[in-house]
Amino acid sequence: MIILTLLQTNPIIALAFIVGLVAGITIHEASHAFVAYRLGDPTAKLAGRLTLNPASHLDLIGTLALLIVGIGWGKPTPFDPFNLRNIKRDSALISVAGAVSNFVLAIILSIPYLFFYFTGNLSLTINAVYQVISIIIWLNLILGVFNLIPVHPLDGFKVLAGLLPRDWYYDFIQTERYGIFILLFLLITGAVGRILFPIISSIFSILIPGFAAPF
């Protein structure tokens, strides 16, 4: 169990892990709701999802799964495509908003470190603080990159669909029913980790140079 192991070894790191997951999931789902509302669909707002209150976005079982095994989910943010002016384009924009919000949060958190790093003013205190903050950054990068996998039910499916030519779009949408099986296969075989870890590590090394991946 990930969280119990962290609690036993370093409670501060465990707390950062929890904060990173809660913040990442909350801003991810709230961003879906915000963009949907801006594009003309009030579904998420009416469902109480246009908020940064974590209670509105965390799924109990999904959150426990994340804390225990490192794989889980938040409450999917609902939207009605028939309220959108351009279903193909706007669905993609709503979907990509979640990952973008995770990347933006990671970048914002890294800015103070980068300032001290490039001005040569790093100190033991700053490094100690970023031992904790780096975990939040790492988790948000994982959430952002993982959700861009173009397989249903992940956001990347609708993002890729929105980028495809219209003739290909309809054929691609038909693969939605097989998405969960493809995703499970990728997770069980470890293919997700082998593909995504190098990407996440590369982005992390740019944001927090000199730091090793937390996990």
TrEMBL record:
> Domain Peptidase M50: where?
129-165
Keywords, ordered alphabetically: Cell membrane, Hydrolase, Membrane, Metal-binding, Metalloprotease, Protease, Transmembrane, Transmembrane helix, Zinc
> Where does this protein come from, organism-wise?
Candidatus Curtissbacteria bacterium RIFCSPLOWO2_02_41_11
GO CC list: plasma membrane
The keyword Amino-acid biosynthesis is assigned to this record: no
Put simply, this protein is called Peptidase M50 domain-containing protein
Instruction: Tell me where the transmembrane regions lie.
Output: 12-35, 55-73, 93-116, 128-149, 180-208
Identify a single GO molecular function assigned to this protein: metallopeptidase activity
- Which cofactors, if any, are listed as required? Zn(2+)
InterPro entries for this protein? Metallopeptidase_M50B, Peptidase_M50, Rip2-like
The listed locations are:
Cell membrane
